[in-house]
Fold this protein.
Amino acid sequence: MIRTALLVAGKDLRIELRSRVLLWQVVPFGVMALLLSGLALGPANAGHSSAGPGLFYLVVLLVALLMINRSQAVESTPGTRSSVATLGLDPAGVFLGKALALATELWLTGLVLLAGAVLFLHTALHGALVALPSIVVTLAALAAAGTLYGALTAGGGGAATLLPVLALPAFAPLLIAGERSFSAALGGGALWEWWVIIAVALAAYLAIGILLYGVLEES
């Protein structure tokens, strides 16, 4: 399973590296969205508003939806699914590999967006660094959940519009916990009560994906 996961993750990351869609389209979109958020707050409120963590995670959500659709589009090319079936790859390994690749892309983009939050939203740098571990785990949970919901919607028509409808209710607890953890880090408060929600969600989505990803691919 681990070997399959590493093979699939490597394949997805190589495709992304060669296509440069993440670099030239997704990341600039996220940066522009953060910049517009800073302009919406206004120069007087940008450094004093408590909306920074929420705006950061809102932009992360938009970027994640683009990445999930992109990840599933790779599997939708002609012959890909039949090749996977012919090779007899472990569905659990495929799920872990795609989730790992998506998490890696989200982590890299999240670092850029976190720097953008410091620059455009005037988020405190020290607080952002304190919140970084919780952001990493939250993005990993989003990747696991996104891989599941991406597989669920990939087979039907209008997947790009169906994905947000189905995934947003599942993403909401993660985004709320991530935002509260970020806000607590900025305020110097405790983080641990929100870590429980994030960690349980990550474990749950990984377990569900390992057990059911093969069924979702066949549906």
